[in-house]
Amino acid sequence: MIKRFLAILLLSAMALTLIPHALADEPRPVNVLTPEETRPTPTGIHHYMLICMDSWAAKLNNPGHTDGLILVTVDEYAKRVMLTSFIRDMLIAHPEGGFGRINNIVSMYSPVLKNGRDGAAGIQMLIDVINSHFDLRIEKFIVVDFKMVENIINAVGGVDITITNKEANYLRSYAISRSSTSPALSGAGTYHFSGHAVVIYMRIRKVANIEGETQDVGRTRRARTVLTNIADSLKDITYEDATKLLSAVVENTLYTNMSTDDMMAALDLAMQLRGTPVEQIRMPIDGTYHPMPLAGMATQEVDFITNRYALWDFFLNSFIVVEDEGE
Questions:
Q1: pLDDT digit string, tens, across residues 25-73
Q2: CA of 225: how far to CAs of 63, 83, 202, 282, 314, in Å?
Q3: Which domain holds residue 146?
Q4: Other C-beta atoms within 10 Å of 43: how many?
Q5: For the chain, what is the domain count?
Q6: What is the C-alpha to C-alpha distance for residues 222 and 52, in angstroms, rounded to an integer?
Q7: Among residues 108, 132, 117, 106, which one has the least CA distance to residue 51?
C-alpha cells in the first residue's frame, strides 16, 4: 500500500512538471504611462478612434464588449493615411489595479445609473487605457455597432473583397443571402460585398484569411482590408457625395465626442488625401506577444514598450514619398 501511495505521488509530481509554464505564470507588470508622460501628437497628425460594439443593436446605457478597435491616423503634412488595429484579447492593466482584456474595459468602467449604465464614461476609459498603454493622445472617437457598420457600407455602395475558398465556404454556411455578394459566392475569388456580408466577413475568426492568419489577428486584418478597399473605391468621390456619406456616418453613430466642426474638418482632410495609399499596422506586432490564460479567459500578454516604439516608428517614418504638385 505504501509503495502504491509513493508511486501515485511520483506520478502526480511528474504530471505537474508537464503543465505548460504559462499556465502558472502571472502577468508581468505593465509600464503604464500617465497623461503627462505620453508623447504630444505632432502638428499635422490627427487621430480618430473607431470603436465597434459587439452587438447588432448596441445601447450606450447597456454597453458590452468592444471587439473592433481601429485607429485612423492622418498626417496632413506627410500626406499619409494610416490604420492601426488592436486585437481584442490583449491583456491590459486595469486603472485600479489587476489585469483584464481590453475589450472588457467599456463594460467594466461604465458606472451604474438610475436608468442603466454610463457607457460614455466607459468609452472614455477605453480611450485612456489605449493612450496609457501605447503612448498616445487620442482625443476623437466614433462608436458604432454591427448594424451601423452594415448601413455605412451600404451607403458607400458596398466594397470589393478577395476571399479564399475556405472563407467562401464559411460565409455560405453562415447562410448569408445570395444577393449579399456579386456574383453569388461560389469559391475563392473577388466579390462585391454588401453591408451585411461585410460584417459577417469581418467577424470570421476560426478560418484563416488570405494571409493565412486566424483568430483576432485574422479579424483585424479583415477589418483593415475593408477600410483600405473602401478608401480606394472613394478616390474619385466628389465633395457633394462625400458630404452625403458623412451624413450617413453621423446617422449611424452610436456615440461620438466629435462636434459638427470636427466632422467637417475630418471630411476636408479626407478630401485632400483621397486616393492616398493606405498604410497599416497591427498592435501588437509579430513576435511581441504570447498566450496568457487569465481567470478562464484566453488573453495575449504584450510587450508594450516594444510596440510603442514600433507604432511611433510607423507614424513618423513614411515609406511612401508624395511629390508636392506645386513644385
A1: 688 999 999 999 999 999 999 999 999 999 999 999 999 999 899 999 9
A2: 27, 10, 9, 12, 18
A3: 42-316
A4: 8
A5: 1
A6: 14
A7: 106
